[in-house]
């Protein structure tokens, strides 16, 4: 396997490996050694080329402080290698052993109520702790030195799903490290007091040693600047914790690739040092872990959304853990993929940027907190349909890997994403409003259903490949983004701005200029003269939102009683009437700006709600409210159509998912049937289905959960 130096972070970055990683997380410590060779032979027959192991085995690598034992994993690696299977090792820092937490109790996380974490779970150690960081470096160095010359160890995963179980800590050591972080950032206490608005509620400090960690509602709200900096600190501490390990691994063997597997996306700034340290990012995907029925649009749409979000952080990725079957921990369980669905979900991951898939897990555990989390092999050591399905997928991808590697996912519509500060700024002052991501989901869902190539992108990435860019209520806008944004529009792109965009600075202060600030008013040709909160769609009022306002997530409100209907605000757009949700803005429009939508009732009647301004070959659309599903569809029909955005397939049947990966010399059209029944897909472009080797005519039939990868004719 060859590893190239990774390109700079970008949504357009392909993976820097010449191998498509195919395999599973493997836990030889969970099974009798007599089973290892049979496991390796079964893996090889299924098409596995790589396994991942060691992430929860610190107690085995170092059973006593300073005493290292690698024999168990050395033997496992050798057995796998004899079957042609390579190993990704993991630093085991997600589960420090009991001797460590007994001897160094100061490494334990402390919750908001002052209770230290207890041993017996995972992520119980505080990654901000200097003591824990020292032990992390020690075990990483010992493992790196031991495996540096082992040709079967080809790469490393840092830790495991950092910040997934918990990201915050309120330990004394965390407080001290936070104070050091602030002193380094601000230099003088007066600068911190200005940034946090110390004259409000007498929250100013005399010295950095007085600063405490922000605790919600004790008894009222802390400064948004204080909360934002706490989460910036957590992100910086997480990056520093990982950086320690990366430095050691890189020094030991320059040929190793290094990545991390994401679970949740809490308190990690992927565009900062955390992502820059890595070759690529891994994203653990369990589509059936999420609510199918309420707001997700189904697990297929949710999987596509999550993968598109992940890709914006660093480009193509691998999936170190892809659901293979039923999963559970004591407090929850997931749906079970039906026959064919495991393969389909894996193919969706490939279609949206994955250059490696590892089904979780090779064998299920017989003990511990995931005894019902199924693997490729069943509890009774019998390979059944999941093994057959994994084998089919592995062999299919291995046969076409050269066509896939080097391609990136096409996007005609970009949604601004992957910006840590804007993600956190909403959490510091949510007001019961949907987050930028929750708002953007409406547009993403529409594009997904219509077969429009859509994804997330950071404004610092190359925008020239897009036809349209939607910015979902980014309150923190950077002036330095404007040049690229304006060039994108002048060259023919459509920029869609939304309410409240550009209204705060990096300190979470409201900007002292008429919104939208940071130069966006001049760009869009509108100024906001007034804004106000609206009763959310279908809501009984605003007060129920109070319970979630302290850094809580948006929750659908209670049903709206008939007596509240008179409080609805409406607007016309494209000869249709819409009900506004969450917020209204009244707009002052420049002479060269066209009014596309107008408020139609109450005191707002007759005032602009949605506008469009021509700039060069493109235009800027401004939407003075929040999206609903109906409004997202109308904006797409109007603004995206004007931008020349068309679906990847002219006729996309319900339940069929389509996406494209492309390079300069080829285009691959991925089509997945997300339903259990056969479907006919009309209007197919000409090309060859790489999975079957057959040429495709104008109509194609897909079996239930069927997949196709069409290598399009070069002239398309």
Automatic annotation (TrEMBL):
Assigned keywords, A-Z: Glycosidase, Hydrolase, Metal-binding, Zinc
Statement: the UniProt record of this protein carries the keyword Hydrolase: yes
Enzyme Commission designation: 3.2.1.23
Reaction it catalyzes: Hydrolysis of terminal non-reducing beta-D-galactose residues in beta-D-galactosides
Record-linked Gene3D superfamilies: 3.40.50.880, Glycosidases, Golgi alpha-mannosidase II
Transmembrane portions of the chain: none
Pfam families: Glyco_hydro_42, Glyco_hydro_42M
Ranges of residues in domain Beta-galactosidase trimerisation: 443-645
Active site: 161, 321
GO biological process: one example: carbohydrate metabolic process
Domain Glycoside hydrolase family 42 N-terminal, first and last residues per copy: 27-399
Enzyme category, top tier: hydrolase
Phosphoprotein found in the keyword field: no
Sequence positions that bind substrate: 122, 160
Any one GO CC term of the record: beta-galactosidase complex
Family as reported in the entry's similarity comment: Belongs to the glycosyl hydrolase 42 family.
Protein name: Beta-galactosidase
Species annotation: Mesorhizobium hungaricum
